[in-house]
């Protein structure tokens, strides 16, 4: 196990690159190469200060300010080109990271509450959340035009500031074919990720297939 307490924008891109290599290998039917591709980050465990329980999780559970509509969340990520509108870095939807975990549970740990000591830092670094631009508490509606893509870490780091002060960098960029690894998702599920939680992955695969055609 390797304890990770912080990461920066370069690490986010490194994680995205390593996952791309691993996921592409799975899609090519080569699980051995996929495991080898994950090796540089295998067994990393988040031990930093970001905690979903104190910030993101509570807000979601208590205030209910997060969009409940899963398709709407996916639409936000697609529109933003699977990039964080705060830092501009690549994002990988949580369902796809969960699929990587389901295939390689020892290399990439997962905890539904993103708990330190239990989860791999890629979830904090890469998984996007759909957050309100104008806060729900200030009357911001739960619609596509008022939602933006933020990495879980970026969202939590910015939670002390007024959401209005956040500078979205814009939406999907022309010429950028980054798709959040969604094109590989069906192959991940077919390779065995679907065994652990079949309904969850089936729904998310269908959702992205429907929204991205
Ligand atoms: Zn970010």
Brief rundown of the structure:
InterPro entries: HNH (IPR002711), HNH_nuc (IPR003615). By secondary structure, the chain is mostly helical. It has helices at 9-27, 31-38, 56-63, 70-79, 94-103, 121-126, 152-157, 185-196, 198-211; strands at 2-4, 44-46, 128-132, 147-151.
Please name the defining characteristics of this protein.
two-stranded parallel ribbon, two-stranded antiparallel sheet, globular, 213 residues, mainly alpha, binds zinc ion, 9 helices
Describe how the helices and strands are arranged.
Layout: E1 2-4, H1 9-27, H2 31-38, E2 44-46, H3 56-63, H4 70-79, H5 94-103, H6 121-126, E3 128-132, E4 147-151, H7 152-157, H8 185-196, H9 198-211
Parallel strand pairs: 1-2
Antiparallel strand pairs: 3-4
Zinc ion is lined by residues 84, 86-87, 89, 151, 154.
Q: What does this 3D model show about the protein?
A:
It is built from nine helices and four strands; from the N terminus they run E-H-H-E-H-H-H-H-E-E-H-H-H. It has 213 residues and is mainly alpha-helical. The strands form two sheets. It has a two-stranded parallel ribbon with strand order 1-2. The radius of gyration is 16 Å and the shape is globular. It has one domain (2-211). Bound molecules: zinc ion (ZN). Zinc ion binds at residues 84, 86-87, 89, 151, 154. It comes from Agromyces salentinus. Residues 108-156 form the HNH nuclease domain.
């Amino acid at each position: 196990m390797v304890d990770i307490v912080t990461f920066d924008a370069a690490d986010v891109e490194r994680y995205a690159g390593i996952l791309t290599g691993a996921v592409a290998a799975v899609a090519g039917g080569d699980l051995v190469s996929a495991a080898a591709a994950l090796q540089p980050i295998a067994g990393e465990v988040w031990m930093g200060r970001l905690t979903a329980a104190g910030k993101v999780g509570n807000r979601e559970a208590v205030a209910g300010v997060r969009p409940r509509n899963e398709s709407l969340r996916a639409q936000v990520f697609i529109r933003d080109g699977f990039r964080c509108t705060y830092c501009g870095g690549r994002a990988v939807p949580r369902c796809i990271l969960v699929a990587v975990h389901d295939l390689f549970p020892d290399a990439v740990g997962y905890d539904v509450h993103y708990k330190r000591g239990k989860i791999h830092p890629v979830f904090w670094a890469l998984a996007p959340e759909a957050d309100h631009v104008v806060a729900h508490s200030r009357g911001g509606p739960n619609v596509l035009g008022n939602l933006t893509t933020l990495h879980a870490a970026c969202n939590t780091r910015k939670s002390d500031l007024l959401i209005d002060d956040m500078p979205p960098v814009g939406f999907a960029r022309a010429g950028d074919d980054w798709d959040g690894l969604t094109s590989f998702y069906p192959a991940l599920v077919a390779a065995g990720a679907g065994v652990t939680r079949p309904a969850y992955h089936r729904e998310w695969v269908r959702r992205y297939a429907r929204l991205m055609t």
